[in-house]
Design brief:
alpha+beta; Trna Endonuclease, Chain: A, domain 1; 8 helices; 12 strands; rod-shaped; binds zinc ion
Amino acid sequence: MDICLYNGTEICTYDLKDESGIYYQDIVMEWKRRAAERKLICVDCGSPVYLAAGLIKEPYFAHYDIVSCAYGKRMESQELMRGKRLLYHMLKRSFPTKEIHIRHRLPNGLYATCYVKNGEGYDIAIDYRLQTLPIKELDLRVQYYDEQEIIPVFLLGIRQDKKEGQLSWYQTYIQNLSGCCAFLDTEEEKLIMKHHITYIENGKRKSKVYQKSYNIHNLSLAEDGRFLCDFYEDCESIKVELNEKEEREQKRRRDIREKERRYHEEQIRRESVLLAEQERKKQQNNLKLQEYQEWCKQEKLLKIDFHTVTLPEGIRRDVLLNCIEMMKNDQEEMISKRYLDYIYKLIKE
Ligand SMILES: [Zn+2]
């Protein structure tokens, strides 16, 4: 047990040591005397308690007699007690004028590890635990804090830090609440802050965990429940950087696509100009060829004496001479097929 009552006032084992973990032995002796006088009382059952304050383990209060007291039966690990002491001192440093409680019982029956009564501002509840809560209980707590306008600060034990490339659902829950997931390393006396960032890279979803560790003795908590450090800013600038990087990348891809499109359009335009030019030349050549053929035809027509040429059956000379006149006048379409075929036969001969 880390708290008990003395003359109706709550006293706490974490006040027995300074920030470096060194005992104030005069207070230890004082409290031991009060305990011997049966003046230290359990906050839960009212039975007298004694103080154990050895050099190896964290100090604690315990019942003199074996009693059926839930608080007295609860065994806490050295890590948890050490962590609570570090957090208690951090809170005292952060809020020197505020009332700070250990194992604070909330009106709904739940306990907060530490509690800061903030008078005019919002109260802060520290929830430090070495095991994860079931989601139902976590929801219940968070909903209660929200309703009561209490700022919760969730902290985890270092062994819950699995050092994977992402955070667990529980850690993500905490990150969503307070902007980071913090692990307390009681051996190193460090707070490791982590933030899982999901982002888009080359159109694909990616994730990374940004982390930074701080000496717990250099950290303070602000009234909004955030630690006074550069961690949150770092996270924001990393997110902005990743977004900007992706935007740059997307712009680069858009530019390439646009360039390709323009190049393609230019190719099509050039091809069509080329085709039109070829078509024009072809038509010009055809025209010249036609002119030449026409000229040859007229030449041949002049050379043949249609008055004397021997006529086959079915070709009349008068009609033939008429047809020749029409040809010379460029009226070929008016000549019947039979006569035209005959005239061409003559030209080719
Ligand atoms: Zn008790």
